[in-house]
Amino acid sequence: xxxxxxxxxxxxxxxxxxxxxxxxxxxxxxxxxxxxxxxxxxxxxxxxxxxxxxxxxxxxxxxxxxxxxxxxxxxxxxxxxxxxxxxxxxxxxxxxxxxxxxxxxxxxxxxxxxxxxxxxxxxxxxxxxxxxxxxxxxxxxxxxxxxxxxxxxxxxxxxxxxxxxxxxxxxxxxxxxxxxxxxxxxxxxxxxxxxxxxxxxxxxxxxxxxxxxxxxxxxxxxxxxxxxxxxxxxxxxxxxxxxxxxxxxxxxxxxxxxxxxxxxxxxxxxxxxxxxxxxxxxxxxxxxxxxxxxxxxxxxxxxxxxxxxxxxxxxxxxxxxxxxxxxxxxxxxxxxxxxxxxxxxxxxxxxxxxxxxxxxxxxxxxxxxxxxxxxxxxxxxxxxxxxxxxxxxxxxxxxxxxxxxxxxxxxxxxxxxxxxxxxxxxxxxxxxxxxxxxxxxxxxxxxxxxxxxxxxxxxxxxxxxxxxxxxxxxxxxxxxxxxxxxxxxxxxxxxxxxxxxxxxxxxxxxxxxxxxxxxxxxxxxxxxxxxxxxxxxxxxxxxxxxxxxxxxxxxxxxxxxxxxxxxxxxxxxxxxxxxxxxxxxxxxxxxxxxxxxxxxxxxxxxxxxxxxxxxxxxxxxxxxxxxxxxxxxxxxxxxxxxxxxxxxxxxxxxxxxxxxxxxxxxxxxxxxxxxxxxxxxxxxxxxxxxxxxxxxxxxxxxxxxxxxxxxxxxxxxxxxxxxxxxxxxxxxxxxxxxxxxxxxxxxxxxxxxxxxxxxxxxxxxxxxxxxxxxxxxxxxxxxxxxxxxxxxxxxxxxxxxxxxxxxxxxxxxxxxxxxxxxxxxxxxxxxxxxxxxxxxxxxxxxxxxxxxxxxxxxxxxxxxxxxxxxxxxxxxxxxxxxxxxxxxxxxxxxxxxxxxxxxxxxxxxxxxxxxxxxxxxxxxxxxxxxxxx
Length: 933
Ligand SMILES: Nc1ncnc2c1ncn2[C@@H]1O[C@H](COP(=O)(O)OP(=O)(O)OP(=O)(O)O)[C@@H](O)[C@H]1O
Fold this sequence. Notes:
Number of helices: 23
Strand order of the largest sheet: 2-1-10-9-8-3-7-6-4-5
Largest sheet: 10 strands, mixed
CATH topology of the largest domain: Rossmann fold
Structural class: alpha/beta
Bound molecules: adenosine-5'-triphosphate
CATH architecture of the largest domain: 3-Layer(aba) Sandwich
CATH superfamily of the largest domain: P-loop containing nucleotide triphosphate hydrolases
Distance between the termini: 163 Å
Number of domains: 3
CATH class of the largest domain: Alpha Beta
Number of strands: 33
Helix content: 25-40%
């Protein structure tokens, strides 16, 4: 038993010992875990601390960044605002006084704002805010009510709550108010065109003493001081101005002068500023004056009438009008109703008295001296090619005595213009100014110009591409210069315009339109620009009683009557219109030319009794859209538009803008002989398929608006020969060379045979040159002289007889001075009893059907007649002829007109007639061919 107890105890001890050991181990483990936890905790704490510091650092960095960014943004915004503010108050409206000088606004630029100081934001630490200019609006915008409650200390103003914009108190204007008004007036006067601002100062207290610096303006009528008791008159006078401007200037078309200015670029009325400095007793205004003041506050700015008010009372309804801005001064700071409670204004120090006096003096002197003469740039619009010509064309040509632009208008009324002025008075210059002014406003889709100058000189040539200047005015479709002897060219232009008139009338009929604006509206895809034809020295065209003059007058009359509704306008200019019977004799035509432009000393262009042209100074013109009736006179100074850097620069600019497919104008220069090598019609000739092709022999340049060549078609019909008539050898040789060279261009070498026969020593050189040129081109060409002529004719006639009806290879006989061999040609061959003349007649008669054509030169018509059979001979063998120095009457036998065509020979001009196509002969210019070789 005892043993089992001992065992039991032993067991228990062991168990206890085991348990103790186990507990100790657990304890140790727990302590180790606790230590580890503590370490972990300590580490976590340290980490947390580090994180916190990092976070703080990151936060600080980020915040710094944000601060920097917002400061940057703030500065950028402030810079933008400053730039905007400078833009709004440009030049003298915003410059600091130390750097201040008057500046002129750009033409048509509306008035901006005026700097009075800089803005102080209330909740920004003083000094850290960017210096934004504080601006106020006056002209075309607002009136100002200026108060000075009398607080002297600026700090007070910064700390004090902003004054509430309640009904203002009427304070007697202090020195500060006067200085403020003076500064503002100087900015306004210095940034507007001299004379465009008129001041009225009502200052019963100091009688204008404090604004005495502006007194020089009074000499120029720009300043009026009004004495005590004058307030009512001032208000009544301004109310009357507003009424007049509304009624007669704005006239229901515009709501305000500002609008009119924006739409037309004109500012027909000055700004009127009334400075009303009251006595501050609050009892100055009667009820009637209150009512007038109320009217002016409401309606003044639209009419350019503005009030700067201080110390006028009692304060009534007018004080609360939104067009009246309030400015309350404290020391050197101010509160304004524009900037509100968030900002105060640190006022600029006032300018020196000398600056104000000097500026006023300069403005007065400028106004008394009159406006600057207009310059060409003044005629140009702000944006080129933006106007529509659907209803009319309108463009300024100069500036009136008041400096405002004077416009010329063409449309339904007035439709056409007469321009007159003796030589040297500036007619050409006026036309340049008008053309430039129109071309800058209207694109070539809106305006097409046809320019013709009958006098010697090249005045309109500048509008076409030239050797030195390849540019042209894109509106110009045709330029004719030196047309003095080529009246036919003028006629051709009128005929062309007449054709345009017909086309437009037909289109208008199809669309049931009665005028151009309607046609354009109905046919928006159509090309219907207004057409303006300018004809300088047009009287040349109407000179005499010949067919050209009669036809020209008929076409002019029709164009003048019907052109108005089809958008075709004529501008006719002349040195002296007084003696143009063909014009004045047609009352209905003259009546259409209601726009009259008279240069100094122009006669008869204005209505009888209207003597303005006699007194208008040099470089001026009287523009009169009412047929010259005196009340419609407008005198304009015309800028120099011919000088370098004016019209030429505009032309370059517009040329760069032209449609790349636009063709240059057709140029006709009557003073220049065209070269065959430059003829487009020659360049277009190429060898054609044989034998179907009918070749054409060119003979000269037509005096026509197309600028094409005239030619004879050498078909296989009777009479397809050409006779060149007259004694001028050089021109005759040129005509034959032109014909030969152009024919040669239509054949491959060998496909045609040329036979040259030259019987005049003077022509040998030219004929030889042609012979060599044809030969050099690979063509078959033979040379015959006096001894060979009969043989050639005989052989050719024989070939025609023997060849049957089948045409052989084309054969062109070029016969120079055929008549020089008269005796030889006459001589009959005893064997055959035929003469060379008989052979010649055979060639002329049968040749064309068998493709043998004779292009021959006879030095007179009787000699040709002799060769054709003498007296009574028929000229049918020559279906085409070209006459050089041959009088019209001598051409009677060749002409369809009884007594012959009306033609007086002139140098380098020929009368050409092709029975197959012409109704009557046309004038051509024989090409110069010498440069050919
Ligand atoms: N408004 C102007 N301003 C400055 N110069 C001008 C003005 N008008 C004309 N002139 C100059 O006067 C001269 C004559 O002008 P212009 O050629 O226009 O006269 P015109 O009447 O056409 O004379 P003409 O009929 O003899 O050609 C030119 O040298 C021209 O530059």
